[in-house]
Amino acid sequence: MPAVIDKELCVGCEACLGECPVDAIEMNGDMACVNDSCIDCGACVEICPLDAITMQ
Ligand code: SF4
Ligand code: SF4
């Protein structure tokens, strides 16, 4: 299941962008969003300082 970013928790720090091996995370204004390229690896979940990313 793909990564999902909680819009209420994300502060737009961009830490997760560099962690994704397939560039599936993009900034949408000041918030990160996961696109259809996500391969469900889970790498971004660990890096988020706000625990805003979960696998669903
Ligand atoms: S690491 Fe977390 S807080 Fe930072 S942009 Fe990504 S989802 Fe948002
Ligand atoms: S789960 Fe993996 S592929 Fe999907 S957005 Fe996170 S780092 Fe990228």
User: How many structural domains?
Assistant: 1
In whole angstroms, how far apart are the ends?
5 Å
Instruction: Determine the number of helices (DSSP H or I, runs of at least 4 residues).
Output: 1
Q: What's the total number of strands?
A: 4
Heteromolecules bound? iron/sulfur cluster
**How would you classify the helix and strand content by structural class?**
mainly beta
Q: Indicate the percent of residues in helices.
A: under 10%
Here the CATH topology equals Alpha-Beta Plaits
What pattern of helices and strands is seen along the backbone?
A: EEEHE
Can you tell me the CATH architecture? Answer: 2-Layer Sandwich
Which overall shape is indicated by the principal axes computed on the Cα atoms? globular
Strand order of the largest sheet: 1-4
